[in-house]
């Protein structure tokens, strides 16, 4: 299932517009904050697809029957760019377990690249609802490589993939590779450059959130 938040106007559009704006991007604090805000929104929307159970809550004046999530949730993100988005989701799903994967593009002189994974920490995934966040879904290669690595930690029962911007190519790839997954995004951009960067996109989300890095 594809869930594009921007299909309906909401405050998420303003947060993303500020993230794209070159005149605002030099404010790293605001950039990270907007990623977290979008994470909040995505967590709320994703929560509508959880299973719920009814519980009796004791108030000072009586018992109130409430419905709360009835499943184990694990949040995973790809370092470093995904951290603010991850923590935005965690703000709302604070009982969730957490997994982290260090992945990066290894660029070659001919313009191609490969995804290298150098570190992973993950709890047991058997039977859980897995929410994997990566702010920019370009080709889907990082998502595919990450999920391959996570398969060693158990079989999840439900998968949500949460991005801020996804390319049309990446959307099709995820649909092909994981047809039962829920794919979430705030915007879908049609174009990819020859080096697989999203256009118009917003640039390098990791650099904008945390500062420029030495290029590999």
Structural descriptors:
single chain; 216 residues; alpha/beta; Rossmann fold; seven-stranded mixed beta sheet; three-stranded parallel beta sheet; 6 helices; 14 strands; 33% strand; globular
Could you give the topology of this structure?
Elements (H helix, E strand, L loop, with lengths): L1 E3 L7 H9 L7 H20 L4 E8 L2 E8 L3 E7 L3 H10 L4 E11 L5 E9 L7 E5 L2 E2 L3 H10 L7 E5 L2 E3 H10 L4 E4 L1 E3 L1 E2 L5 E2 L5 H6 L6
Parallel strand pairs: 1-11, 4-5, 4-7, 7-9, 8-10, 9-11, 10-12
Antiparallel strand pairs: 2-3, 5-6, 13-14
Helix pairs in contact: 1-2, 2-3
What is the number of helices? Answer: 6
Please tell me how large the radius of gyration is: 18 Å
Give the C-level CATH assignment.
Answer: Alpha Beta
Low-confidence parts: none
Binned, the helix content reads: 25-40%
CATH topology: Rossmann fold
Biggest sheet descriptor:
7 strands, mixed
What is the global morphology? globular
What does this protein look like?
The chain is α/β, with parallel strands linked by helices and 216 residues long. The protein has one domain (2-210): 3-Layer(aba) Sandwich (Rossmann fold). It contains 6 helices and 14 strands. The chain has helices at residues 12-20, 28-47, 83-92, 141-150, 168-177, 205-210; strands spanning 2-4, 52-59, 62-69, 73-79, 97-107, 113-121, 129-133, 136-137, 158-162, 165-167, 182-185, 187-189, 191-192, 198-199. A 7-stranded mixed sheet has the order 1-11-9-7-4-5-6, sandwiched between helices. A hairpin with a 5-residue loop joins strand 13 (191-192) and strand 14. The longest helix is centred in the N-terminal third of the chain and has 20 residues, at 28-47. The relative contact order is 0.18. The model has no long low-confidence stretch (mean pLDDT 92).
């Amino acid at each position: 299932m594809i869930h594009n938040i921007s299909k309906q106007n909401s405050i998420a559009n303003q947060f993303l517009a500020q993230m794209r704006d070159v005149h605002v991007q030099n404010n790293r604090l605001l950039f990270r904050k907007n990623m977290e805000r979008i994470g909040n929104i995505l967590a709320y929307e994703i929560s509508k697809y959880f299973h719920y159970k009814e519980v009796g809550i004791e108030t000072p004046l009586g018992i109130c029957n409430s419905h709360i999530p009835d499943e184990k949730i694990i949040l995973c993100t790809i370092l470093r760019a995904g951290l603010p988005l991850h923590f935005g989701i965690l703000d709302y799903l604070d009982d969730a377990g957490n997994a982290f994967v260090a992945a990066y593009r290894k660029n070659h002189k001919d313009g191609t690249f490969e995804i290298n994974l150098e570190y992973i920490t993950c709890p047991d995934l058997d039977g859980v609802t897995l929410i994997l966040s990566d702010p920019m879904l370009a080709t889907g290669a990082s998502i595919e490589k990450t999920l391959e690595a996570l398969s060693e930690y158990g079989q999840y029962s439900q998968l949500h993939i949460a991005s801020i911007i996804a390319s049309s190519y990446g959307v099709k790839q995820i649909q092909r590779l994981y047809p039962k997954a829920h794919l979430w995004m705030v915007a879908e951009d049609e174009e990819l450059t020859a080096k697989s960067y999203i256009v118009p996109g917003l640039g390098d989300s990791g650099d904008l959130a945390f500062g420029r890095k030495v290029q590999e």
